[in-house]
Amino acid sequence: MSMKIPLLVVGLLALAGPRVARAQDTGLPLGSTPPSALVQTLDGKAADLLQVTKGSPAVIEFWATWCENCEHLLPAMQRAQAKYGSRVKFVAVAVSVNQSPRRVQLHAAKYKVPGVQLFDAKGDATGKWDVPATSHVVVLDKRGRVVYTGVGGDQDIDAAIRKAL
Cystine design at 104: which of 11, 30, 94, 131 (Cβ 3.0–4.6 Å)? Predict the structure, then answer.
């Protein structure tokens, strides 16, 4: 006797199980230009995320001090900044959940988080940039168009940057 599992049950089981995120699963559409979003510097000054990234290829990571995927991704980000830092802007946007600008500042200094450090105090950037989770990376080309989005600790940042150059 064969048992047929209803499609709804299969769908629910798929959602409940572990999911490996791949590039372009989430976030802004490839080829789009991100919207302006208000963030702040770690000393509290207002900044527009789009203006910070303007003028050259950029790698933007939405991260948190408590994020294990971000910790796993950090060496790849550090290597990428060492390799491409003169040609690509690196921007780290700390989400505000369970963090403060001071905590982010101390963590970024201690662990050498690469790039310009920003704080998304009100969630404006995470909302407007369709950020699904911490460790979300967006790569922009020199025209400011999205060439890569991804989430997770095992992203190939080097390959993502090559798409922008």
Answer: 94
